Backbone:
């Protein structure tokens, strides 16, 4: 047993001394990682800290104050360690992430790993939530003017049952002009300009790394992985070229150098999921980041835009009638019989889900579409859906319901039954009032009004 002594505490939760084992639990590039004997804390002791390291750590710890509602997604360092038994050292200490959280590599490292997870009953919706959680964690530090500089799968610990992802390794944060980058990142996630030696890690390069990680979580592959060799003699140079100067998005519409075989075929038939299985908004963010913004960091969307699009994607998922996987209903594909489950390939049969559009008042009397939602039979419509500026909450357990869809087989149409105290008003398809317990047929073009302060709901198909 060894004892570490802590100074510079950010949190009252930390004791003055912590007991750790004699041998490290992990060995990383920068130092050794120990868990405390009571299993509550994690201690990192640096191998060869630079002269500024203590000062940098003090600043990072101070920046951890007032992180807001998503602080639980960040394993912030809470104190500085300066003694290991009687020896001087430098390290940092934080709360240990619960053992329910596993390294993200265990879930998505390869397509085969993902298939195994899915065969064991994992639902793709869990991966969508993990991706959202990753975006929320990164958005929180970007919102404070910081960058992580080392975003990759090993720096997220994930609870797949809840979709919560916790970002670790926050002791190397970057703040422009204040905290310089201390690491370059991990190949595969590093932005091209950093690989090429043209820039240092920053918020702009985080945007690239976060996009690659989010898409890896959703599609079970690195969408930037080179398929050809650029330097057979030198692996390192091959990587620098493949992810740097010669980098190319795997589904680039005109440059097919990195197209993987069997792209877009159902996953269980050894296909590679295509980014085209994602919502139009997520497809647009992918193209802006990895095509338009690949070598032009200014064009990369911010991470909060990913978070919003990932949250909204939750409301357009349906369950496959054949394999029971959740997937994004490709309502933008026409004709409708061409809509398939990306996991087993079964086409979505009639009665197909109803597609609705939420409209929000931008200026007096002018309503514009804000996002789509898809309702399958017996699917609840939650009250938050019609609240202005609201994105779907991470978890809707116990939240109030506005109504519920049922399938009227006699009339061959989806109906929405009101379960809400406030009467709804029909703005089209004849005027009328829908009181609690009554239903309305969801015919194309129907517009429902709830109140002046709420969104409108329009039936698209
Ligand atoms: Zn399926």
Residues:
């Amino acid at each position: 047993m060894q004892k570490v002594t802590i100074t510079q505490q950010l949190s009252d939760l930390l004791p003055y001394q912590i007991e750790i084992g004699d041998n490290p639990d992990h060995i990383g590039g920068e130092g050794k990682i120990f868990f405390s004997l009571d299993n509550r804390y994690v201690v990192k002791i640096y191998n060869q800290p630079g002269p500024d390291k203590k000062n940098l750590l003090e600043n990072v710890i101070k920046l951890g104050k007032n992180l807001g509602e998503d602080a639980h997604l960040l394993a912030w360092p809470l104190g500085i360690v300066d003694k290991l038994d009687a020896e001087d050292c430098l390290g940092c200490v934080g709360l240990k992430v619960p053992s329910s959280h596993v390294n993200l590599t265990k879930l998505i490292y390869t397509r085969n790993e993902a298939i195994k997870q899915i065969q064991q009953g994992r639902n793709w919706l869990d991966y969508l939530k993990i991706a959202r959680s990753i975006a929320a964690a990164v958005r929180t530090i970007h919102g404070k003017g910081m960058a992580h500089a080392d975003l990759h799968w090993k720096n997220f610990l994930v609870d797949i049952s809840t979709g919560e992802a916790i970002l670790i390794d926050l002791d190397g944060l970057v703040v422009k002009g204040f905290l310089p980058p201390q690491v370059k990142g991990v190949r595969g996630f590093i932005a091209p300009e950093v690989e090429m030696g043209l820039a240092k890690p920053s918020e702009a390069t985080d945007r690239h790394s976060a996009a690659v990680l989010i898409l890896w979580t959703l599609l079970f592959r690195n969408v930037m992985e080179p398929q050809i060799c650029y330097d057979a003699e030198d692996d390192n140079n091959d990587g620098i070229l493949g992810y740097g100067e010669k980098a190319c998005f795997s589904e680039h519409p005109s440059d097919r150098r990195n197209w993987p075989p069997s792209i877009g075929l159902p996953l269980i038939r050894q296909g590679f999921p295509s980014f085209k299985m994602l919502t139009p908004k997520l497809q647009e963010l992918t193209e802006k980041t990895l095509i338009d913004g690949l070598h032009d960091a200014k064009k990369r969307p911010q991470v909060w835009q990913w978070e919003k699009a990932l949250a909204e994607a939750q409301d357009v998922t349906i369950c496959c009638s054949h394999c029971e996987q959740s997937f994004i209903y490709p309502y933008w594909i026409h004709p409708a019989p061409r809509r398939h489950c990306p996991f087993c390939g079964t086409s979505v049969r009639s009665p197909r889900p109803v597609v609705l559009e939420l409209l929000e008042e931008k200026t007096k009397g002018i309503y514009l579409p804000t996002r789509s939602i898809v309702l399958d039979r017996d699917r609840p419509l939650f009250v938050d859906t019609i609240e202005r500026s609201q994105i779907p909450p991470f978890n809707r357990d116990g939240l109030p319901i506005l109504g519920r869809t049922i399938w009227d087989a006699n009339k061959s149409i989806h109906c929405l039954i009101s379960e809400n105290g406030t009467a709804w008003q029909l703005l089209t398809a004849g005027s009328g009032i829908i009181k609690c317990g009554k239903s309305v047929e969801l015919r194309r073009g129907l517009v429902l009004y709830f109140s002046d302060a709420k969104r409108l709901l329009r039936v698209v198909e």
